[in-house]
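Incident log, structure service

09:12 report received: a user says their structure output differs between two submissions of the same chain.
09:20 pulled the input from the user's history:
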Amino acid sequence: MSTINKDEINKFSKIADEWWDIDGKFKPLHMFNPIRIEHILDIALNYFKINKDKEFPFKNLKILDIGCGGGLISEPMSRLGADVTGIDASNKNIYGTTTPEERLELEEEGIELASIPWAKDKEN
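09:34 re-ran on a clean worker, output below:
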């Protein structure tokens, strides 16, 4: 049994190059993202009893962003110091939104990109 919905994967694969366009199809996510980040930050700081005044409060934390899409959560979590792994069923979401040089930079910043092996096909 699988929870992968190929129609959803294909839908997001077709617009993968728009993830970081703040005026594109993901504009609502970009507008909402600061609230999401603030919520995650508040919960994590409280749960892990982290001083919120630290320069990199998520340093030494490992975060797995399942269904990361273009990385709208992964990237800010990394900037907060976390070691982030973003995975997505769409290869295009992972590899189609970045150049090899950008992926190397992300990995150097602590963001690891991975696709789900069983989702690999020509449509993704």
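09:41 both user submissions now match this output. Likely a transient worker issue. Closing.
09:42 reviewer note: Residues 117-124 have pLDDT under 50 and may be disordered. DSSP finds five helices and three strands in the chain.
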